[in-house]
Amino acid sequence: MGKGDRKTRKGKRFIGTRKKKTKRNCYEINAIIFNKTFDYTQEIEYAVKNSIVSNSDIFDFRDTPQKKHYESIYNFCRENLDIHFNRKNILKSTFLYSNDYNVNAKACKYNNHCVILFNMGLMQECINKYLNNHALNEFVQSKEPDLIAKFDNSMSYLAFQINIQFTYYHELAHLFQLSRVETDKELQEQSIDNNFNIINHKLEINADTYASISIATQIHQYINTYLIENINQEVVTTTIAIFGACLFEYILNFTSHLELYFKEYNHPHPLIRVLNIILNITNHFSVNKIYKEQGVNLNNSVLFFKIMDFHNELTNNEVFTTAIPNFRQQYTNNNKSIVSYIKEIKNWEDGITYINAMDIWNKNVDIID
Ligand SMILES: [Zn+2]
């Protein structure tokens, strides 16, 4: 991990919240009430007028049965984009759903306008695979009934939220990266051009790092909100393992190349991505002084295996479907090479003015509250 990646803000609100004028967001965590710059109608008008997205490519969710899920994610993203625009971290940016069935999302800069696009295919996949995954609720309920009883929402709902929000933070990090790039640029999660490019790998790992820290902070707040009376080693590690396994399944979905590779393809191999994500999440928790005072000592490696093992149990029970053969073995055999590759791409000098998303995180860490 780079120096900046470890600098997280422990035990405080997640990025984009403040103390006053608060309401509950979808994690039931305080979030500021913002006067949004756009509603979805204005969002569409703005994007079409500025030739950012053509009208026929935009998905209007407002007359669909899944309206409330699309709307809650839209509101969350819109408010967060406004926060970062007000902090001058990004240009004026739009958030839209695109009329595309592929499981994909992208961050783009066109004519000095920025946009995050979530395909309706991505949303539908997350609704089907997580939100409507009743087997996930039943399995986790049977394994951890005391813990689940303390959660404010079903596990399937929380899994849906965490995975979609991970994607949002990942795309937001791409907007930070692109903020000083003068030419039009598009970064997408499933690319037609699947050639290796180390800069792309660097940008993806950097976006994952930002998203991991954002999600770790959310999980942290969730534990502090709903499990504060019961914090101990078991509660904290099990909660991280459950959320981590859902994120693990989600990341695995973005590839069809299951055998480990390094300098190939447009995105790093999911094992590399997952290791970076999980290490960032576990680092965030393991340095928490308050937990340490309460006798909670979190070890990166133990947590990583706990997440992998829990994911394995979920796939063995057909709750999740993405099983990578010998995944644990691949990790054990290649751990050093993976860590070394992550280090190599993090230290890679691209020679282009991409902003490091973690610099934005660290800047915000100092100014929030
Ligand atoms: Zn990406």
Overview of the structural elements:
- The chain is of the alpha+beta class and 369 residues long.
- It is built from 14 helices and 6 strands.
- It starts with a helix and ends with a helix.
- Residues 170, 174, 187, 189, 204, 207 line the site of zinc ion.
Give a topology summary:
Layout: H1 3-6, E1 22-24, E2 30-32, H2 40-49, H3 67-86, E3 93-98, E4 105-110, E5 113-119, H4 120-131, H5 134-143, H6 145-150, H7 155-178, E6 185-188, H8 198-226, H9 233-252, H10 270-286, H11 289-293, H12 300-316, H13 327-347, H14 357-367
Helix pairs in contact: 4-7, 7-8, 7-9, 8-10, 9-10, 9-12, 10-12, 10-13
The structure holds zinc ion.
Task: Characterize this entry briefly.
The protein is an alpha+beta fold and 369 residues long. 56% of the residues lie in helices and 8% in strands. It is built from 14 helices and six strands.
